[in-house]
Amino acid sequence: MRATLRLLILVPALGLFACSEPPPPPPPAPPFHTILDLKQFMLLVIDPAADLVWDSVKTIMSKKGTEEIAPKTEAQWTTVRSGAATVAEAANLLMLDGRARDKKEWMAAARRLTDTAEKALKAAEAKDPAAVFAAGGEMYEACRGCHQRYAAHLNNTTEAVK
């Protein structure tokens, strides 16, 4: 009787295991790996590219007078476009696992940088110095907001790249 009872319990249990699907395999590792830590990435990629935008349109006032700086040649406009495009794409790389500091504010800040750099790119494509200046200001504010929240962490990750 006990053997029969065991079979009555064991057979349906085995049937449940036999009918269930195995768990799905883990997702594959991403096909990329980052080379630079976050601070190096900022210093070597984002900051120089942003400077190309920020330095392209400005007003310099001195004892000699006022000097308006803006791209004039196709090569100068290409430089501004290159800087803006690099910042826009590099901001996406800030969202990678290992660089992203959180899934909410960090991602929103990186997205804001992508969007403002895209505005600068479009302004440079239109060869509109005033729009480049305005978009550059928005890029600066996006950077500043993120740095205010996360710069302490950046300062503790690595020493500055020389």
Instruction: Please name the CATH topology.
Output: Four Helix Bundle (Hemerythrin (Met), subunit A)
Q: Describe the biggest sheet?
A: 2 strands, antiparallel
On the 0 to 100 scale, the average pLDDT is: 86
Q: Order of strands side by side in the largest beta sheet?
A: 1-2
Helix content: 55-70%
Shape: elongated
Order of helices and strands: HHEEHHH
Query: Rg, please?
Result: 27 Å
Quick description:
The chain is mainly alpha-helical. The chain contains five helices and two strands, in the order H-H-E-E-H-H-H.
If you had to describe this structure to a student in words, what would you say it looks like?
There is one protein chain. A two-stranded antiparallel sheet has the order 1-2. By secondary structure, it is mainly alpha-helical. The protein is elongated. It is built from five helices and two strands, in the order ααββααα. The protein has one domain (34-155): Four Helix Bundle (Hemerythrin (Met), subunit A) (Up-down Bundle). α2 packs antiparallel against α3 (74-93), α2 (38-54) runs antiparallel to α5 (129-157) and α4 (105-125) runs antiparallel to α5 (129-157). Mean pLDDT is 86; it is low at 157-162. It is 65% helix and 6% strand.
